[in-house]
């Protein structure tokens, strides 16, 4: 790990150790809630007094509401882009633990991998950064499992799996017995979906003839000699014997080949998967990726308290509520994708664009946009920008890109920050190179399309 980064995490931990009475303010996505869970568990183990608040975004009006309500504040998974506002409004006694593009502001209690040349988009997430502090606060290496959940929730895995600091955190978790890794079929839902739905709902990649075709999926699986049920229970992929898994995987490869799916897409279906060893065998929380989706399902639908309870270990009431929210979340994502496909995506010179009107909530518009790449509706040569209209007259745009576009210079977070700098009051944007968001007044839509096109064009030229 980067020595200066570790040293800074230690300094922050020492300072936190000296204080008491914290308000931990975290972002409402999977990474933000994992990091909040890590920090709260560490504080709890030290016997510190704390409360929590989960927010969609650290907008100025939110900071104003928070200021003066606690003795100390820890902002997690946002704050680096709002240091100026925090200094102006909260003034003192606050810590920022984040991995988003930082503002050029000095603050002594600011931990961000980007300040140490560590890539906060692919090598470590907010959860990993919070874990760096937690491991200095006590014997907290078991929390590495949540750090991995956060990293996957922020889509930090590369084609070879987790890398950089994320990989070292993973190894610490394996050493502690809370995590394991293996190479396997990576399709989403290996634990939470019955076999037929496992194939039927595969959107990344689309499996020709099988995706969205229940009957074909069931025939396909039975054709490989794999039973769909064990007694009365539908089997999931994880419950298959190694031999059955191999038969199903081979049949899938042959099927994709026969349907002219490019080799790289077939290879991308396989890779490292990460298991939380302490979770029960049938639980979606056992798969690190699915744990992240469960948290998004809670956090992005206004139930971040449930997601946080999961991170703090509740496997009773919160767990059951979370499973219900997960089913609803998936339904909304499916409907969002259907809407985008039905209405069609507009193609501009430097990006794809979709205006969802008020049909998709601002909290999931970015996820839906990202899923479009896997669905085959757009190609991977440009980023996708999706827009949704809020009841207050503002619009929220979410952008998603591919790793390849970022390697060519694209940075959506910077592009949206630039719009914020140009337009001033009423526009707030930021995020990562691959995934970012911006809120602005609806009447600026045409200017947005024009100016964003120019900014993105310059980035990749
Ligand atoms: O909302 P969405 O999922 O599109 O956000 C993508 C990323 O951009 C998230 O990491 C989010 O925290 C960040 N973001 C930001 N400032 C905004 C909106 C989003 O930093 N105004």
Protein model, in words:
Helix 6 runs antiparallel to helix 7 (165-176), helix 12 runs antiparallel to helix 13 (304-311) and helix 13 packs across helix 14. With 461 residues, the chain is an alpha/beta fold. 46% of the residues lie in helices and 15% in strands. The protein has helices spanning 3-18, 30-45, 60-66, 83-89, 126-137, 144-153, 165-176, 195-200, 214-223, 242-258, 263-267, 288-299, 304-311, 317-343, 362-375, 403-407, 412-423, 445-460, and strands at residues 22-27, 50-55, 72-76, 94-97, 110-111, 179-185, 229-230, 233-234, 270-276, 346-347, 352-355, 384-389, 394-400, 428-431, 435-441. Strand 1 (22-27), helix 2 (30-45) and strand 2 (50-55) form a beta-alpha-beta unit. It contains 18 helices and 15 strands. It is globular, with a radius of gyration of 22 Å. The protein folds into three domains: 3-155, inorganic pyrophosphatase (n-terminal core); 185-333, no CATH class; 344-460, Diaminopimelate Epimerase, Chain A, domain 1, CATH 3.10.310.40. The longest helix has 27 residues, at 317-343. The two termini are 34 Å apart. The strands form four sheets. A six-stranded mixed beta sheet has the order 10-11-12-13-15-14, with helices on both faces. Strands 2-1-3-4-5 form a five-stranded parallel beta sheet. Bound molecules: cytidine-5'-monophosphate. The site of cytidine-5'-monophosphate has 17 residues, from strand 14 and strand 15.
> Within the largest sheet, what's the order of strands?
10-11-12-13-15-14
The top level CATH class name of the largest domain = Alpha Beta
Q: The CATH topology of the largest domain is what?
A: inorganic pyrophosphatase (n-terminal core)
The molecules bound to the chains, other than polymers, are: cytidine-5'-monophosphate
Number of helices: 18
The CATH architecture term of the largest domain is: Alpha-Beta Complex
Most strands sheet? 6 strands, mixed
- Overall average residue pLDDT: 94
Low-confidence stretches: none
- The percent of residues in helical segments reads 40-55%
Radius of gyration: 22 Å
Number of strands: 15
End-to-end CA span:
34 Å
Integer tally of domains? 3
Q: Class by helix and strand content?
A: alpha/beta
Shape: globular
Fraction of residues in β-strands = 15-25%
């Amino acid at each position: 790990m980067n020595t200066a980064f570790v040293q800074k995490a230690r300094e922050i931990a020492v300072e936190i150790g000296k204080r008491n009475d914290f308000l931990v303010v975290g972002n409402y996505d999977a990474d933000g809630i994992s990091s909040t869970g890590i920090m709260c568990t560490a504080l709890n183990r030290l016997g510190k007094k704390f409360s929590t608040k989960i927010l969609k975004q650290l907008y100025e009006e939110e900071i104003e509401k928070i200021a003066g309500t606690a003795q100390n504040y820890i902002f997690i998974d946002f704050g680096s882009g709002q240091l100026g506002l925090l200094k102006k409004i909260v003034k003192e006694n606050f810590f920022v633990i984040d991995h988003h593009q930082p503002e050029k502001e000095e603050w002594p209690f600011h931990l961000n991998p980007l300040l140490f040349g560590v890539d906060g988009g692919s090598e470590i997430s907010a959860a990993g950064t919070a874990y760096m502090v937690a491991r200095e606060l006590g014997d907290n290496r078991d929390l590495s499992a949540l750090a991995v959940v956060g990293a996957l929730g922020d889509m930090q895995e590369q084609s070879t799996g987790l890398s950089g600091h994320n990989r070292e955190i993973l190894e610490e978790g394996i050493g502690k017995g809370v995590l394991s890794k293996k190479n396997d079929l990576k399709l989403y839902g290996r634990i939470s979906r019955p076999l037929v739905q496992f194939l039927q709902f595969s959107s990344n990649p689309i499996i020709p003839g099988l995706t969205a075709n229940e009957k074909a999926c069931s025939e396909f699986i039975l054709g490989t000699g794999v039973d769909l049920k064990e007694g009365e229970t539908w089997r999931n992929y994880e419950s298959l014997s190694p031999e059955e898994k191999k038969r199903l995987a081979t049949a899938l490869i042959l099927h994709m080949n026969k349907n002219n799916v490019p080799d790289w897409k077939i290879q991308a279906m396989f890779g490292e998967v990460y298991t939380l060893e302490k979770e029960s065998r049938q639980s979606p929380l056992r798969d690190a990726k699915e744990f992240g989706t469960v948290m998004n399902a809670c956090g992005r639908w206004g139930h971040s308290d449930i997601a946080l309870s999961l991170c703090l270990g509740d496997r009773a009431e919160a767990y059951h509520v979370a499973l219900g929210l997960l089913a609803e979340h998936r339904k909304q994502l499916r409907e969002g994708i259907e809407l985008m496909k039905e209405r069609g995506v507009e193609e501009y010179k430097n990006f794809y664009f979709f205006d969802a009107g008020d049909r998709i909530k601002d909290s999931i518009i970015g996820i839906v946009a990202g899923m479009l790449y896997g669905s085959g509706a757009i190609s991977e040569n440009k980023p996708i920008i999706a827009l949704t209209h809020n009841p207050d007259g503002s619009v929220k745009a979410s952008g998603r890109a591919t790793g390849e576009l970022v390697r060519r210079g694209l940075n959506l977070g910077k592009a949206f920050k630039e719009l914020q700098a140009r337009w001033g009051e009423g526009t707030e944007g930021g995020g990562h190179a691959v995934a970012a968001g911006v809120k602005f007044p609806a009447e600026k839509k045409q200017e947005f399309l024009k100016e964003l096109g120019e900014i993105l064009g310059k980035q990749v030229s």
